[in-house]
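Hey,
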Amino acid sequence: MTETVGIAGLGTYFPPKVETAADLVAVTNIPEDILREKMGIRQRHIAEEADSVTHMATEAAQRALSDAAVSAEQVNLVVSHGSEHKDHLIWNAAAKIQQNLGAVNAYAFEMYALCAGAPIAMNMAKGMMLNDPSLEYVMLAAASRENDMVNLRNMRSRFMFNFGAGGGAMLLRRNSDRNLILGSAAYTDATLSESVILTDEAVGDEQPIQGDLKGRLDVTDPAYMSERLGEVSLDNFLRVMGEALAKSDATFDDVAFLGITHMKRSFFNLIIEQVGLTQEQAIYLHDYGHIQSVDQVLALELGLKEGKIQDGDLVLLVGAGTGYTWSATVVRWGPH
């Protein structure tokens, strides 16, 4: 039998607190119609004190276990691929998620690729599972409250004003007969490696993030970043998508659904057009914003809920994160 890895269960969690575009007008000085229509922010969930990264990731992971009808004791590995802005500094958040779940037969570690993390984590876990027969179930869990790290008065970081909070999880199964993970690809343009970092200059009158950590996410050279991304971003999205599809013995013509990271509306529309899809074959996350590497599992969940994904469909999951990395993974949904 050909060895496979598939998605056995999905889960998401979002804090109850919501900020709408109207709520952001006063603090950003950006008109509501621009926030909604151009930046794609109708609303976003905001984490409160109890909504730590491990709490949100755990809630999502518990829902993924329930979706798969699998017990925590059956999980062999827990991987956290969410935010580095977590409960404690220099700390393995995956171990806490494992403890919260009661996955007593697992081990746990983190991997980090910022907002490109989900497709990369799926590919990494697939490789590990195919190489190690003892890994029958692997939990990929992520959460982010990166909105804490953005000063909404700093116009250099306005492309990050869409950051929201939440958690997402996928339970992967070895030798699965459904929802198979196929080819993956990623690419990094390292000329942008320091384009977004924490700086004291971006703090303004914001409170410390954690302990004595006072920085906020900032763009070090806005002109260069804008110029460089304008030159390469579309091509690199198409590159990783095309490579992932080729590794899956497929083409863009075979794609039925696109689950892609949240971005400004015009660029989302351009990508949809470039890959030959319609708006009905994708999900735009304007009611959630951008939640780092949670976006892909959220898009899957919404796509299924809205009937945009059917058995047999080829699904393309795509991310991009500062650093600057683009990533993609292909999934064949439904029975194999």
